[in-house]
């Protein structure tokens, strides 16, 4: 396992090209299995999780040309192996391996996953919503003590359903949509996630010949079709990566120009940043964002000078993936904020590392923490527990005094492309060691 060595104190300033959205690319890769012709994805991010999904596609028998390093891949699923099988080594290292289930059930009626889905350890991450929806569509699911999962259509094919998701799960929405587009009849899904990456997937499927109505809302109406065509599709910019670089610039007193961002998505994030006194300018035509320098970071209190609450929720509320970096921003902001992580009971545990670096944080319980700033952070030795906590620790190290060592650098590589090279180009003193 490698580690990052960071010497803090340099402003993060300059121009950064935002790569493709991790959370859009992974389900779009899975969706290529539904097509009866080659599908090309452009602006694919060069991150570990994309490489692992491509390994899964190859294991299923799909032909893959191009590579994430080229930011362009072409997948031909006409060579799919039967029965569909994803080996344990792919399943256990990435949670989105379970997204192969919906397309394979729709395409060939059965899939065997060699192990339970892996991914970040940020709390319990249920599969029940996926499985319950598949069961209604006519799927029998068998779990083995080893973690292997077999899903098989009782009658050889899926049928349409009316189904209410018991939680507004992004991945369950994506899985059930991919299954429903080639199921027999009409499917209506209620309480679905409507995040931009879910919308990207639905628009891609519609361009391939699917009939999905209600995109962007919490109710989707899907008319099943017999086949889907190929095509070329672009992965949208990664909003969470863009916001992470914005926070890095803010806490180090720098300025930043981002290219490749989606104006609507960044504008929806702006209200939560305004609670810290932050502003920026977006340009829809150029797909760019400018963060001015020398911003005064000050808490915007609620009426009566009440402490504001920063909480996550389904889109368009603040994404859970953003809370970790916002906590670092709060340590450098004059004032006090209450953070309420409602979705994952282990995401906030990384604040122990920030406390060790000098942050004034009271963790009330697994879901809530109170942060008072600004605080002068100092370097230390920490370990990245997951993707988002990892980038938050990098950002904390960039504004800390002295040297910080961050172990388990590969966890950050799962979601951030060439992070040390990109930060070096913006002025950071960061290196990687084996």
What are its keywords?
four-stranded mixed β-sheet, alpha/beta, 14 helices, 434 residues, 2 domains, 24 strands, UDP-n-acetylglucosamine1-carboxyvinyl-transferase, Chain, 24% strand, single chain
Could you describe the 3D structure shown?
- This protein has 434 residues and is α/β, with parallel strands linked by helices.
- It folds into two domains: 3-19 and 237-295 and 306-433, Enolpyruvate transferase domain (UDP-n-acetylglucosamine1-carboxyvinyl-transferase, Chain, Alpha-beta prism), CATH 3.65.10.10; 22-234, Alpha-beta prism (UDP-n-acetylglucosamine1-carboxyvinyl-transferase, Chain), CATH 3.65.10.
- The protein contains 14 helices and 24 strands.
- The chain has a four-stranded mixed sheet with strand order 22-23-1-24. A four-stranded mixed sheet has the order 2-15-17-16, with helices on one face.
- Helix 5 (128-136) packs parallel to helix 6 and helix 10 (323-331) runs parallel beside helix 12 (387-399).
- The model has no long low-confidence stretch (mean pLDDT 95).
